[in-house]
Target: Tetracycline repressor protein
Amino acid sequence: MAKLTRETVIAEALDLLDEVGLEGVSTRQLAKRLGVEQPSLYWHFRKKEELLAAMAETAMAPHATAPLPMPSDDWRDWFLDNTRSFRRTLLMRRDGAKLHAGSPPGAADIDRIAHKMAFLVASGLPERDAQMAMLASSRFTVGSVLEEQAEASLGATADDLIGVPQIDHEAAFEEGLKLILDGLAARVERRSTRATIDHQMLI
Model:
């Protein structure tokens, strides 16, 4: 039998996630799929929480490896694209949002976040506003995908939901995201206007 690697364990665990959902992922089931005894997994992950953290990090790779913003980029377009990329990545895995929720960023993630923040500040956004906008868009996205994936897991159909308004999850996400962006842009514009007025009064 080939040597059991950390990468193999994570990949198989993510496949198991797609089949049974987060609640169904167990080290016992994972060991069975890998054809090993359960204690063999402890060479790579001492407890299930470590495995889940590694799964979350790997599942986020498509977003975590996306190109970082360039100085010439328009911050508004980038903000939309970055948040959409986050949503697409969460949707790639069953219970992707639930898996990601609460997972701490790794060292590479912190470096990327710092780069993104520096880009927004260099684009004219106050640092505090940029921080809060990134946090708000992240939590909004996770919450939106949690609801979407929870509905999908229930297998609800139109016949089951007679009298209940149907939600177009992507359209609702886009509208909410634009509200966040519009609020941020308006705040930046007000700050810029006040700064201009204050400068003129000093001349």
The chain has two domains: 1-46, 62-201. The two ends are 79 Å apart (CA to CA). Residues 169-202 form the longest helix (34 residues). The CA atoms of residues 141 and 174 lie 10 Å apart.
